[in-house]
Specification:
This protein is mainly alpha-helical and 604 residues long. The protein has 4 domains: 1-163, no CATH class; 164-292; 296-439, Cytochrome Bc1 Complex, Chain D, domain 2, CATH 1.10.760; 469-599, Cytochrome Bc1 Complex, Chain D, domain 2 (Orthogonal Bundle). Helix content is 48%, strand content 2%. The protein has helices at 11-28, 39-64, 69-93, 95-102, 122-129, 137-160, 165-185, 195-213, 219-238, 247-269, 308-318, 381-390, 399-408, 410-420, 427-439, 447-452, 461-471, 555-563, 566-569, 588-599, and strands at residues 108-110, 115-117, 498-499, 532-533. Strands 1-2 form a two-stranded antiparallel ribbon. A two-stranded antiparallel ribbon has the order 3-4. The longest helix has 26 residues, at 39-64.
Length: 604
């Protein structure tokens, strides 16, 4: 799997070096190194980190002294705000540290070792403070002391490393997209819901850093960005209620403008792009620009990158029975184009016409996931295709025999030779052309995309209301991240999440479905039992029935399930449920508006 954007810091070695360097600096009273005129940027990072440390210590003192819940929550908000000021730098240069400062309040899984790492950080502290029980005093203090250690790590590393203009700009651009996806959804404040009040701190930090590294060349672009950030912050300060916030206006009219203006700033300053393949093209003005996403960021290696010729050949083979035993079934038999490449059945059907265990997932936008199938058992689409072809219940094919048939076919043989410059087709090449075709199925051509690109008539008033509910009261976007609407985490897209929802056998919601999901391959990891990949919601109105088992026939049934708090909310026992079991209290009209919005995600 190709590595998506990560700052090339080897965590263990860099930490050891940074710690030693930190000790030396402390002993010698040395100053942080100056990096090509970027000393003000580093100075601001140290200042923000010192504030973060001070706020952490203050909260520890308040907890120790028995302060009331309201006081603790206010100080916790101060602490989160101080982190937001340096989030752009910590997330980019120290992603591992960032994960344990502000990552989800869920275990980190070491898949190879089948072990769980205890969650920690701000989101875990939030769970103890909203509401606060004094009986948890010692645990809250322990968690906060861990944050002190993380603050020391930040200081030590930034004293030791050099940062360049292109890296800083790349980090700021990533932060803009983080705000436009995770931030605007309230991903890291699921209980307090204070994200709209935090965003000004992130945006102002963005503007200040751009100003600190600017020259006269970018005077015009900087002025425009400064003005737009000011307008955005003013809007946020006047609209702090997540349930009434107008997301459908704020995102295109403010956040998209900021990300677009960043590219003009980069051009005027002459800052080169960081040369690394990322899911989001470096020249994409917004999340919603045509061709903003690069499916080649998810391929196993350079030889697997998409070409038009591969897509054409892959489509032909996708619809050819040659890939199955005795030439009896094609991929298209179970992945029908008119149904968003699903089959419309509750369960997939075997070659013998008997029901299999799971619902057929859509192939559209499957390219933008780390993990294929509901249980994520294959890393990429190449592995997915061969798994299906060789499964005795699905296609019962033999890859060696299939390649033999392809090489005996003059048309196919010539096509493979032209594309791959070899004498004969090989198995990996067959996998690659099929995967290339599937990667081409992400067209980003929905009414929602058109709206986000400036066509204000592309969505109806009902759909706009539905989107605001989707983002706010219904909290859908904290799992289905904008703009892919799946579980691949922006803005670096290096990980796809799974969730435990407590899905029942069907919409009667009386009996928990027994499918272990991803847990089948990690039997000793309790957290992964009954967990399934978070799929995209793009084209979802075409893919009924729903959930991994197809037990929910309509989107109305799905929304009712979520509205009541998933399995736990319905009275089923799901100890490891990751979905909040707090009822959403959506009205019937609000559910109808959300479903109406989901139809705006259908590609044209």
């Amino acid at each position: 799997m190709k590595t998506i954007l990560k700052y090339p810091l080897v965590i263990f070695l860099s930490f050891v070096f940074a710690f030693c360097f930190f000790i030396q600096c402390e002993n010698n009273k040395a100053q942080p190194p100056i990096d090509n005129g970027l000393a003000p940027v580093k100075k601001e990072i140290f200042k923000n980190n010192a504030e973060f440390l001070q706020d952490t210590q203050q909260l520890i003192s308040q907890v120790s002294d028995g302060a009331d819940e309201k006081t603790l929550q206010q100080q916790f908000r101060n602490l989160r705000n101080s982190y937001k000021k340096m989030e752009w730098a910590v997330e980019y240069f120290l992603p591992h540290t960032a994960r344990f400062i502000n990552g989800p309040a869920l275990p980190e899984i070491e898949m190879q070792e089948h072990t769980e790492l205890e969650p920690e950080g701000l989101q875990v502290v939030e769970e103890y403070l909203y509401p606060y029980d004094p009986a948890n005093k010692a645990e809250v203090i322990r968690l906060l002391k861990n944050l002190i250690n993380k603050s020391n790590t930040i200081r030590a590393n930034f004293q030791a490393i050099s940062i360049s203009r292109d890296q800083i700009f790349d980090a700021l651009r990533q932060e803009t997209f983080r705000i436009s996806s995770l931030g605007i959804a309230g991903f890291d404040t699921p209980l307090s819901g204070t994200f709209l009040m935090e965003m000004p701190y992130s945006l102002n930090s963005l503007q200040l850093t751009l100003q600190q590294m600017a020259t006269q060349k970018s005077k015009d672009a900087l002025r425009q960005i400064t003005n737009e950030i000011k307008h955005s912050v003013d809007y946020l300060k006047k609209n702090t209620d997540k349930n009434t916030f107008d997301y459908v206006v704020f995102i295109p009219e403010h956040l998209n403008r900021i990300s677009s203006l960043l590219l003009e700033y980069q051009k005027q300053e002459g800052i080169p792009a960081v040369e690394i393949t990322t899911a989001l093209h470096k020249n994409a003005p917004t999340f919603y620009s045509k061709n903003a996403f690069d499916p080649d960021a998810f391929v196993p290696g350079k030889a697997f990158e998409m070409t038009e010729e591969k897509v054409i050949l892959g489509k032909q083979l996708f619809n050819d029975n040659i890939l199955s035993n005795n030439n009896t079934r094609s991929c298209a038999a179970c992945h029908v184009a008119d149904k968003a490449f699903t089959d419309g059945l509750e369960k997939s059907m075997s070659l013998e016409n008997s029901a299999l265990k799971r619902n057929t997932p859509s192939l559209m936008y499957a390219a933008f996931q780390h993990g294929q199938f509901w249980d994520m058992r294959k890393d990429d689409l190449e592995g997915q295709s061969s798994e299906v072809i060789t499964n005795k219940e699905e296609m019962h094919g033999d890859l060696n025999l299939i390649i033999g048939k392809i090489n005996k076919n003059p048309e196919y043989n010539q096509a493979f030779r032209t594309i791959y410059k070899g004498k004969r087709a090989e198995i990996w090449q067959l996998q690659n052309v099929l995967a290339s075709y599937i990667r081409s199925l992400a067209t980003f051509s929905s009414d929602f995309d058109s709206y986000m690109r400036g066509n204000q008539q592309a969505m109806t008033d009902s759909q706009k209301k539905g989107f605001n509910l989707f983002m706010g009261k219904a909290q859908c976007a904290i799992c289905h991240f904008l703009p892919l609407f799946n579980g691949t985490v922006p803005p670096d897209y290096s990980k796809t999440e799974q969730e435990v929802l407590g899905v029942a056998e069907n919409a009667s919601n009386r009996k928990l479905d027994r499918d272990p999901g991803r847990g089948k391959f990690h039997e000793t990891v309790a957290f992964l039992q009954h967990s399934f990949k978070t799929p995209t919601l793009r084209n979802v109105s075409k893919t009924a029935p729903y959930m991994h088992n197809g037990g929910y026939r309509t989107l109305q049934e799905v929304m009712d399930f979520y509205n009541k708090g998933g399995g736990n909310g319905l009275g089923l026992k799901v100890d490891n449920q990751t979905l909040s079991d707090t009822p959403l209290n959506l009205t019937g009209q609000e559910i109808s508006e959300i479903i109406d919005f989901l139809s705006a995600l259908n590609d044209r």
